[in-house]
Recover the amino acids of this structure.
């Protein structure tokens, strides 16, 4: 029987660089775009999909909607020629409001895309401008209204801890998303990465206030019917992102494009983050194996599973590693009783636990 596989495709092109972004992305010429997509399709065509059925595809970036829909169509048909697609394949694409057009949405729908992820971040125009976003609130409303004409599975991103941000900014954004029937919300605490414009400006998020905004987000979304299924992700029932769940479940996925990552056949593979090298065909930068019963796999399983509301499957953990975690870490788990829940065969974080998640994970893997 063929195994299920997720596919990630990285589009490193944007119409502008956000102040907080440290991804492999930027503004490039049409000539570079053409060369990149040629290399991208070549990479897809050279992968052996024969053992797999693909049940999730995710176009990320960068801003996939910033390029012509003809490029997305070309990649889709190259992929379709190579793979067996599951009949219920989740097919996502990231879009920014300023680059959404009816023509693009129509094309996405026509080729089989069934999930749109829109970057909102905040409804405050002053903040949007300060972080280098190219859209304003009016652009987002136009984009979401247009998107809702073609798709019923729409996600939106929010950021917490932004410069000038207050609680009203967050509650206003959540209220708008609910009014616009957004089915999925990703809410991320701002991290100021070295080398970004925001880092150079000297801005540092207030961690306590960011935690307060996160707590506010959790509560407000819960009131509106959204369930937190991962530390930063919330969804209406049945609208969890299947592709992203692969990462937390340690399921197999293959990434194509510059800086893309893969996890296939116990191997973690990292593509080069050098765009010019990628275009020349020098794809893989690093590859290492993590066997299913290795210490590295044990750490990954605990670290990733505890991010989710499903938690860590203790039976699966025992089958993989021969360790009864409840007995092995009994004193640690007892000391962390306010932050951990033992629910039948699952170990989960309590609501309090999400705030000290990293510390809990370190103590469990020590």
């Amino acid at each position: 029987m063929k195994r299920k596989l997720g596919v990630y495709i990285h589009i490193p092109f944007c119409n502008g660089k956000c102040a907080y972004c440290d991804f492999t992305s930027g503004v490039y010429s049409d000539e570079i775009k053409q060369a990149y997509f040629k290399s991208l399709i070549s990479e897809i065509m050279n992968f052996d999909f024969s053992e797999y059925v693909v049940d999730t595809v995710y176009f990320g970036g960068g801003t996939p909607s910033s390029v012509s829909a003809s490029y997305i169509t070309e990649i889709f048909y190259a992929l379709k020629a190579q793979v067996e697609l599951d009949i219920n394949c989740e097919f996502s694409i990231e879009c920014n409001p300023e680059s959404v057009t009816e023509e693009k949405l129509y094309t996405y729908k026509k080729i089989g895309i069934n999930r749109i992820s829109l970057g909102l971040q905040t409804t405050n125009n002053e903040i949007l401008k300060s972080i280098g976003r190219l859209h304003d609130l009016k652009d987002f409303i136009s984009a979401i209204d247009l998107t809702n004409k073609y798709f019923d599975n729409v996600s939106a991103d929010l950021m917490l801890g932004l410069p000038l941000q207050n609680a009203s900014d967050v509650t206003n954004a959540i209220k708008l998303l609910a009014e616009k029937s957004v089915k999925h919300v990703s809410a991320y605490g701002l991290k100021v990465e070295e080398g970004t414009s925001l880092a150079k400006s000297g801005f540092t998020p207030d961690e306590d206030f960011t935690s307060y905004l996160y707590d506010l987000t959790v509560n407000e979304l819960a009131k509106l019917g959204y369930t937190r299924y991962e530390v930063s992700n919330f969804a209406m029932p049945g609208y969890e992102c299947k592709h992203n769940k692969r990462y937390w479940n340690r399921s197999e996925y293959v990434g194509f494009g510059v800086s893309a990552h893969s996890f296939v056949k116990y191997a973690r593979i990292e593509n080069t983050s050098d765009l010019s090298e990628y275009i020349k065909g020098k794809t893989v930068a690093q590859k290492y194996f993590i066997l299913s019963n290795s210490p590295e796999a044990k750490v990954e399983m605990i670290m990733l599973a505890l991010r989710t509301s499903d938690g860590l499957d203790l039976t699966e953990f025992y089958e993989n590693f021969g360790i009864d975690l409840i007995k092995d870490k009994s004193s640690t788990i007892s000391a962390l009783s306010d932050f951990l829940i033992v629910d039948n065969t699952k170990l989960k974080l309590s609501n309090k636990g999400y705030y000290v998640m990293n510390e809990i994970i370190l103590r469990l893997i020590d």
The chain has a mean pLDDT of 94. Residues 207-223 form the longest helix (17 residues).
